Write the structure tokens for this entry.
Amino acid sequence: MKIIRPAYAGTLESSDLQVRITPNPEGDIEISLDSTVQKQFGAEIERVIREVLSHMGVSAATLEVEDKGALDCVIKARVQAAIMRAADSNDIQWSTLS
């Protein structure tokens, strides 16, 4: 999917995260992560984000992620929602992420 406009998904409440995504004219993926559990789980959070991006065919985007201790299923849902909004897509891929 091509990211065509800025979008976001999620909140800054406990156990949630907010994902802000914008097009990246440089043509690559840039992720800025701020997490309350960054030391323990930062690498895993970024891995999950990159997995969703790859699975949805996003190759160029800038993401700003503020995590408040979200579980993997929440991370996946928020990233997918942000991508779909930014790509102006209604094609929900229910079975794409496990």
Remarks:
- The helical segments are 38-55, 72-86.
